[in-house]
Every structure is written in C-alpha cells, then in structure tokens.
Amino acid sequence: MDCLLPEVLAALAGDTPVDVRMVVPPAALRAAPAPRADGKGVLGANMRYHVDGAHFTVQWADTTVDSERAAAILAQLEAAWPVLVDAGGWPAPVSSDTYLLWVVLDPELAGSGYTTVYTTDAYPNGYPVTYLNPDYYADEPEFGLSVAVHEFGHMLQFRLRDWLLGSADGWFWEATSEWIAERGAPALDTYAYSTWWYAQWPDGRFDRLEDNHPYGMVLLVAWLDERVFGLEGVRDTWLAGQDDDRTWDQLIADVAGRDFGELVAGMAAEVAAGTLRESAIYERPLRGATHPEAPGWATIDAPERYGTHFIDIEGGGANLVVEGEVIVAYVHDRVVTDVVPGESYTLVLTGTGEGGKVGYGVGMAPDEVEPEPSGCGCAVAARTGAGGAAWLGMGLALAIARRLPRRPSSM
Predict the structure, then answer these.
(1) Neighbours of 319 (CB within 10 A)
(2) Which of the listed residues 123, 163, 286, 315 has the most CB atoms within 10 Å of its CB?
C-alpha cells in the first residue's frame, strides 16, 4: 500500500501539494455536470473513457489503461457499497445522493492511489474524488482492487472528519481504511501485507507516521472490531469524531469505554498469541530480545508511547518481574495471561510513558537494595515468589490509573 493520504491532508491544510490535483480539480471536473438518462449524473464532463455503475464512475484518459481492469475496479467498488453503507451504516460520501463518485485511473500516479476533496458552491465542505494507479502491482490484480476499496474508505471518512486537522490525524484514517478494505472485500486479503509495517516497528508510537506505520495499525482496528465493539464501533468512533478535534486515542477510548493503553496492550498480546481471525496471514513482529532462559536481569529501551516490545523467553522462569512504565502480558501456547508461565513464553510490554528503560528478570535489579525487614514484608515476598507478576500487574495498573484522566462518567 502506498496511499498518499498524509500528503493530501497536508496539502488541504495549506502545504505545497506533491500532486496539484490534490487541491485543484482537473478540467473535466470543472466542467458543467453531465446528465444521465438512467440514473445519477456525473459531476463534471466525462473523460475520454469511462465505465459507470450505480454509485461510481471510473474514468480515464490514458489509452494504455485496460478497460477490463477498469470494469473490475468498478465492480469491486459497487460490491463494497452495500456492505459498508447499506448494511454497515456508514454515511454515504458527500455528493453521492445526486452524482456518481469519481474514480480516476492514472498509470503515472506516484503511489497506489489517494482520495482528496474539492469544494464548490454546492459542496462547500468538499466532495471526494479518488485517483488510482491501475499499474501499481499490475501482476497482482487483487492488490489493486483492495486499494480501490481502501480509497472508498477515505471517501466515507471525508464526510465525517475535518481534514484541516492535518496529516498528524492520518494514522487512524489509514488504519481504518485498511480494515475497510478487508470488511468491504473479504476475499482479497491483500490488506494483510500492511501488517509488515507494524511488525518492523512494533515499539513505535501508536500514531507514528514514518515508515508506513499507520497501515500496520490496521491490527488495532482489526482487534477492536473482533474483540471490543465490532465494525459498528469502528464506525461510531468516526461518527464521534465528526465536528470534533479530539485525538483518535481519546475518541477510541471513549467509544470503547476503556483506557486506550489497555486497548493497545490487548491488541499486542493477541498479535503475539496469533489469535485474531486472520493471524495466519499477518507478519510476525520483530523481537526486542530473545533469551534462552529467564535472565537474571536485563534492561531495554522502553517502547515509545503505546508501542510494544515482544521479548521471547525460551526457558521459562516463573519468578520473572518487570519494572517500568509498561503494561505487561505473557503469551504461552496461544494463551494470553498476566501470570508468568512456567515454560517458554513471549513477554509483551506496551509502553505507557515517553521513554526511559524497562527492566525485567528473576530477582532484584542490580541497583536495588534489599529493604530491611519491617512490620509488613508482603511487597518483598510478592516480588520474590511466583505471585510476583500479579503483584506487579496490580501496581502498574494503579500507577497508570493515577496518571490518566478519568473517562466521562457516562462511558
């Protein structure tokens, strides 16, 4: 996937566009609307070639574009409409009640595609137009069809979210549209390629824009859909963001009624366990470290905020403890637990702070002094016994709860 949405959001917010069409419609779209006798009209004049459906018009001027390819893209988009709009309840894109939605095929496009909006007197808040490169991954037509549905997702999003919030807002746009590509066209499955971008940088911030990380965060949307609130909740998060400048972590937490860090940690643990519906086709995240047995003590740079370290411990170690601003989970034999397994497992550490170090191992940290016995030795006993993980998890949960603002009482 090489969608140029972040560049579009930046251009719409006033930055210099990498493609002038991101802000200036082509001549055909500036012409008077073209009526149709048998359905919705076309907002503008038709290009040299076009194929029309019930909701979309696929248009192109380049003679090298394969008309069968164009027809396949149109058919895939029309098939996604009833799934997402009629049954899924996403509000239809702006202008689609009167006009067919424009999809322009351009083999010279720098990326796989993008969706932008143009404003007119009739549509002062903008109507969407998609550009697709039909030659991108030409040897794998399923990929191009998935990109088309991904861009349809952006058409839906532009109705609900103010693009003037800029490119920093774009991570959830991309993550959501990758999941829309799966839900709108479930037979294609090429959306799963995007999990590679999470797998390479699992310790990056949740809203990281570099290295195509937003596409990889499709894993969070998949987990939210499958485990928390369904596709309706994904849609409702976007509805909650309408005319609202709250950040996505706030919106997701409010719709889910749960702390955002806990949500990301839940996703990361199931990614490690391989228990999502299509985990078999997802990329395995890189490991922060691998140990043949539980170390006496080890440290690692903390993941960025709501990023995750996956650490494989191959020889057990039931007394392992963790120190740092992280949410801790353990995965053994495809089971997620907060109790340290006695056999090999993956230690899943999701950051809640902005850096620093995480320490983990059996026993006390090297720079930690054993406290003198006092009236109550419960904390020391818990840290040195098999219940150490449970004690630590409770302590971390309380610490996290103190740092985070309370959710509204209505949630």
Answers:
(1) 18
(2) 163
Environment class of 128 (CB within 10 Å of its CB; exposed 0-12, middle 13-18, buried 19+): buried
Round to whole Å and give the CA distance between 156 and 79: 15
The count of other CB atoms within 10 Å of the CB of residue 240 is 17
What is the rounded CA–CA span in Å between residue 332 and residue 335?
Answer: 5
In this prediction, residue 368 carries a pLDDT of: 57
Distance separating alpha carbons of residues 164 and 159, to the nearest angstrom: 13
Q: What is the block-wise mean pLDDT of the chain (411 residues), using blocks of 10 residues? A: 86 93 94 82 95 97 96 98 98 97 96 95 95 91 96 97 86 97 97 97 96 97 98 97 93 98 98 98 98 95 97 90 97 96 95 94 68 37 30 32 27 27
Q: How far apart are CA 49 and CA 70, in angstroms?
A: 10
- Reference 96, options 43, 35, 168, 32; nearest CA is 43
Give the Å distances, CA to CA, from 308 to 125, 241, 261, 267, 268. Answer: 38, 26, 11, 10, 7
* Contact present, 161 and 173 (Cβ < 8 Å): yes
Amino acid at 373: P
> Please, are residues 199 and 284 in contact by the beta-carbon 8 Å criterion?
yes
Which residue carries 């971008």 as its tokens?
197
Q: Is this prediction's pTM over 0.90? A: no
Measured between alpha carbons, how far is 157 from 160 in angstroms, rounded to an integer? 5
Evaluate whether 138 touches 27 at the Cβ level (below 8 Å): no
Which among 253, 269, 338, 363 has a CA at the least distance from the CA of 310? 269
Burial of 297 (C-beta count, 10 Å sphere; 0-12/13-18/19+): middle
Instruction: Report the pLDDT value the prediction gives residue 367, as an integer from 0 to 100.
Output: 66
Name the maximum alpha-carbon separation found in the chain.
89
Task: Give the closest residue to 350 by CA, choosing from 271, 241, 233, 245.
Answer: 271
Type of residue numbered 106: D
- State how far the Cα of 350 lies from the Cα of 30, in Å rounded to an integer: 50
Length of the chain counted residue by residue? 411
Instruction: Tell me the two tokens of residue 46.
Output: 């038709």
